[in-house]
Every structure is written in structure tokens, then in C-alpha cells.
Amino acid sequence: MQWQDICDDKLLQDLPYKIELNQWGQIVMSPTKIKHGFFQNKIGSLLDQLTTGGEATIECAIQTADNVKVADVAWASDERADIILEEVSASIAPEICVEVRSDSNTNAEMEFKKSFILRPGHRKSGFAIASAT
Fold first, then answer.
1. pLDDT over 70, % of the chain
2. Is residue 18 a part of any domain in this protein?
3. Is residue 76 helix, strand or coil?
4. Paired residues of 62 in beta bridges
């Protein structure tokens, strides 16, 4: 399965889950609590307030070597946004990528995702983990 297929599938729209694809094109869904969304919004708002020359976004799909991973919050400079804005999944990660850590997340899971988002070609990107617990 490709990311575009997921985006176009009406059955997968408006789910209360974060959807990603693994290296085999399988859908991976992670349920989130309301608190998770509040943290995403707060972090995105802070990034918009504290930075210039770019924009924050929530649920940013990023193409990685392990297929598509979705950063909970991301901030892209205007220059990088011009590259990725019309893409289905970002070919290069935004400069700042934030994961809101849920109760169900493990350190290994966070490090695994971090390693793919910060792969070569995404070198000017940063990755942070914020705790929702």
C-alpha cells in the first residue's frame, strides 16, 4: 500500500488514530487520547510564536526508509515548505519534528522513529519527544 492510497481511502479518513506505514506497506495505527491532541496544538502554537520564517503543522507525513512516519508536530522553514507543501508525504523532513510520547510508547519505539526521520538527507532536521503523561 502507498501513502496516496491511504489519503484517498474514505474509510480511513477521520479515524481517531494516527496512521503510518511500515517498510512492508502495512498500516500501523496508534490510538491517541484527547490529551495527546491538546499537547500537539500547544506545541504547534509555541513553535509558531517562537519562530519566524516558517510554519508549524500537526500530523506531518514524512517519507522515510521505513515508509511513511507521521510527526505529531513539525515546523518547516518557508524554503523547506516550498519543497514539501504539495507532496503527499514530505520527501525531506521539516527542520523540527516533535513526537508527543503517549503512555503506550516505549523508548525503543521513539528511538526507532527518530532514526528514520533523521536519516541522511534529513540532516538539517531535529527531533524532540514531549511527554503527554
1. 88
2. no
3. strand
4. 69, 90
